[in-house]
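[job 4471] stage=fold_predict status=RUNNING
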Amino acid sequence: MKHITVILALAALLTTSCESDFLDLKPLDQETDVTYFDKAADFKNYTTSFYNSQLLGWNDIYNSIYNYFDGSTDLSCYMVYNSDLAHGTITVPSTDVRWSNCYKFIRTCNILLDRAKNYSNQTEIAQYVGEAYFFRAYSEFWLLKTFGGVPIVTTVMDTNSSELYGPRNSRYEVTTQILSDLDKAIADLPETVSSSEYGRITSMAAKAFKARVLLYEATWRKYNGTSTDFEGSAGPSKDQVNDFLDECISLCNDVMTNGGYQLWNYNSNSSMQNMSSRYLFSIDNETSNPAGLGKETNKEFIIANVYDMNLRPGGKNINQTVGYFAASRKFMDMFLCTDGLPISISKKFQGYATPGDEFKNRDYRMKSYIDQPSATFVLDKGVSGYPSHKFYDDTPGVISKKESANYPVLRLAEVYLTYAEALMERNGAITDAQLNKSINLLRARAGIANLTNQLVKDNGLDMLYEIRRERTIEMYMEGCRFDDLKRWGIAESELNESRLGMVVGGANYPTAFRNADGTATSQYTPGRFVYGEEAYETPVGEVNCIVLDKKSNFNFTKKNYLWPIPQHEIDLNSKLKQNPGY
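[job 4471] inference complete, writing structure tokens
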């Protein structure tokens, strides 16, 4: 068996009296598969290793974690991570860790499930069997999102196994397998765990994750059909879109009602300055936020990868990096005013004349996620002017690579958004009562008026677009944007546009950067922006903005909805069909 080291997966476990025993666990390759699984504790220790090695977090598992910060999307002007995806320049790689690691992880789950079959007391190990089913589904979903249909592997294979040389399964078969594994996980997992076991997957967490899968696949099929399927792929056995949405709604309702989770909203504490949405993502210890709130106060994270500054630090230069993920003009203009209206129609919008004006009377998430510039801000660094602050660790004196806030794999806010979107996709409508139990709780934390059917009607808004707007803003930098644009079938139109930064204006709209005669002020150095300026339609008219990447550089097409199968895998197995267009 490949080396799997049982390490610090759950910070809570590390602070208990069992810490020394936990740290003294033998690497699994020092024992045979047969002798290792001889008591329930062995199954528990084995699954504990899943949490560090398989969950998305600060540790790089599926390429750099920064690939999941929405860089290169339409929301960002930082074009370093996922640049090939955004620009439509993906080429077939020799290998891809998202393929190799996922199958490695699936194998570890299959080993436990295989050994569990012969264990004498199934009740003793039910939780750990449930965890294995969950993590197998977790890796299968990564494969589905990345490559579409892939070979399904549910047994422990050796070099002679025929499955190694079989064809790809369709995305529809893979989805069925994922949902089946999650059903088994839900049946075996406990509904809650003790505080000393914080971080372990519960049945409620598995339900929330299943809701994510159901919404993803329902909307993918609704808006993309079979357009991304590989040559020879079987289609869906039946239309399951509405069935998936119905179950998604039911699961979300269960988690919202019975899960025991709650939004982390401490805006009533004046020291927080209405920035709960900032400090939620940097809770390292009681000194990392003005209210002195520790990790134990966070009931919002449903699935979290757990870190500790001393026992399991994040190991990434988070504070030195997040600011590079500068927001785009498009994203900044998506934030609503406090009256719940877009800036295009709200009378509360203050314009762009002076840096910082646009932050006034806006959604609190704007100043929580993006650093607000001062009136004297100088635009001379060749960046958008909107550095991100989300995930920045505000702990005084924190050392680089010691930033150790828990990573949010799935949180209650996403469940609210999933619930509302699924209702709208299923019924073409959503009631105010349903909005009040979901999205409007997020808007309350953000300090903006409720979304209501009357507000939509009176102002000529589109309810589905407003729900998608909420998701886009709330989930910024949490790795959702590329997936969302693709499952909605609009990635081509949204990604093939220039990435713009601050409004600099000109003779038609003087700002701190350009005078009424159109000349640049001392606060602006045009020569630092190689792509110059571009006219952009805003609430104050068509005005010039700085360009960080121009439209002609983008050529995102339908083929880019999926990544290519690594060439090495096709060389090993000629039955693997490549994805369309590669």
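[job 4471] summary: The mean pLDDT is 93.
[job 4471] exit 0
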